[in-house]
Amino acid sequence: MTDTHLEIERTYDLPDGADLPDLIGAGGILQLDRQEPFELDATYWDTERYDLVASRVTVRRRTGGPDAGWHIKRAESDTVRHEQHFPLTDDPDTVPVDVLAALFTERRGRGLRPVVRITTTRTVTRLLDEDGDQIAELADDRVSAQRLDDDAPADPRTWREVEVETVEGVDPQIAHEFFASLDGRFQAVGAGPAAVASKLARGLAGAPAPRLQTVDRPEKGTTARILTKRLRKLRSALLGQEARLRSGENAELRQTAATTLEIAAILGAYRPAFPATDAVDRAAAAADDLAGVTARAALAEYLIERLPRASTPAQDALVDAMTRERILAATRERRDQAVRDVVAALHGEPFLELLDALDDAVERPAPTEWALRSPKKVAQDVSATVKPHVRELVRDAVADDTSDTAAERETADREATERAWQGTMRARLAMDVLGDDAFPHALWKRIGTAADVLTERVRSLYALDALRTNAGIAERGGEGTFGYGVLAGDRVRLAEESYDEAVHALNRV
User: Fold this and answer.
1) Which of 74-88, 173-187, 230-244, 353-367 has the lowest mean pLDDT?
2) Using one digit for the tens of pLDDT, what is the confidence trace for 395-420?
3) Confidence of residue 1 (pLDDT cuts 50, 70, 90)
């Protein structure tokens, strides 16, 4: 069983022989309750590449004190951390399966090893208000840290620090104001906010950490600089969305789809900007697959909102409540399955390879000569590839299918339209990265129009397929299907309108 809470604290560096400041009167503190010192012994774990440190995540096994166990801390800032607790296990040399599972993405699927052992003599003082209620806890720590890698120095590193942590449930802004009221008191005794807020980071000083080795960013004005900056934001967004999906929280599937589509667009349209390696090729393929899965999940979410309703009040009035409820239940089930498909993709090796490639592109960019050119020159090359590709996709989407049965023709139409939709969306997103200052404005606008048209068409075709499936189930169960027919007729009309618009878009691309 695990326990998760928000930890808001500030760390101060204090000279070894200095006394603690007088905090009475600061931040509402009117009483102090000093506890007896106790010992803490913690072993911190990370991958060979130090992936956890790079992700601002720490994992440790700690004994001693009131919260012995396995701890995962994810830093939101220097003062705010999300801490997850797991029970202490008897085997100090093996990370529990639950801990490994919770760290799957941050460790990039790699195993963990001990990297630092930190022992602490801690003296706790409870900071109380006038009623004796606790405001915060002050921990006066005398720390010894020993690196565990082969190149570690023989002698441990020692220092003294003071951690002040607010009680759980305090608003972060109020906590920030509380810490600000303490800063002057600490400054008066020669202390100040710690230059390094993490014991692990201080204990790891000098360690060979490949993941933390970075290179200079590409020069301003180059395409490589723009791509690096954009991929940094996309990686951050993807990891945040992935964490919410993995934890079971509600996630905005359309935003996740947009993020993955743009990553796929960049790795596809700007492939010559990245090293010509198999690893980058696999990452681009993984981005394509993930974009497809998340796009279908976004379509499933759209059906929940729009499928039970007709586009006009008159038509909507003809749909009975039972039909609407049946459709809503079916669309929710379809969305839930789509989310499971996305989560499964996020547990796969290709996703980890994609993250590795993004790490390299963001932290250790190795731009090619092609990418070191101006955006306008690169855009000329991209346009020469994107424009005929989009035309081919849209042409396939509006072409007459020659399959033998109506069902086969509808399936082929829907699949071709989905490919064209994703292709035009990726083209638009790829162009958006450099903007219409680099690409011809007319082309940029026409690709965007085609993407909008195909978005509506693919939604209509998916909605029509879902309605026909649900109507078939209702008919076999002896239920009326009139409401389904009303909604299907509405979608047929929208699909036909979007088809005409798609033909028009093809002629303009």
Assistant:
1) 74-88
2) 888 887 677 787 788 888 888 889 98
3) low
Q: Residue 273 — very low, low, confident or very high, per pLDDT cuts 50/70/90?
A: very high
**Which residue, chain included where needed, has tokens 């004994």?**
63
Residue 451, CB-side half-sphere exposure with 13 Å CA sphere: 20
- Rounded distance, CA 105 to CA 356, Å? 10
Least confident span in 74-78, 247-251, 263-267, 268-272: 247-251
One-letter identity of residue 235: R
- HEC secondary structure over 148-187: CCCCCCCCCEEEEEEEEEECCCCCHHHHHHHHHHHHHHHH
Task: Give the containing element (helix H, strand E) for 51.
Answer: helix 51-54
Q: Among candidates 466, 216, 204, which has minimal Cα distance to 329? A: 466
Structure tokens at 411: 């399936």
> Residue 139 and residue 119: Cα distance in Å, rounded?
14
Q: What is the pLDDT at residue 362?
A: 94
Instruction: Return the SS3 of 239.
Output: helix
Q: Which helix (H) or strand (E) holds 263?
A: helix 253-269
**Per-residue pLDDT tens for 196-249?**
878 998 999 888 888 888 888 899 999 999 999 999 999 999 999 998 888 777
Q: Which own/partner pairs from 248-253 qualify as long-range (CB within 8 Å, at least 24 positions apart)?
A: 251/339, 253/294, 253/297, 253/298, 253/300, 253/301, 253/335, 253/338, 253/339, 253/342
Distances (CA, A) of 474 to 110, 326, 402, 480, 481: 49, 9, 30, 7, 7
Helix spans in 347-481 (H): 349-363, 375-398, 406-434, 441-476
Is the four-CA dihedral 58, 356, 351, 447 of positive or negative sign?
positive
Phi, psi at 464, each rounded to 5°: -65, -40
- Cα radius of gyration (the chain): 29
Q: Report the candidate in 248, 245, 353 with the shortest Cα–Cα distance to residue 298.
A: 245
| Gap between the Cα atoms of 166 and 11, Å rounded | 12
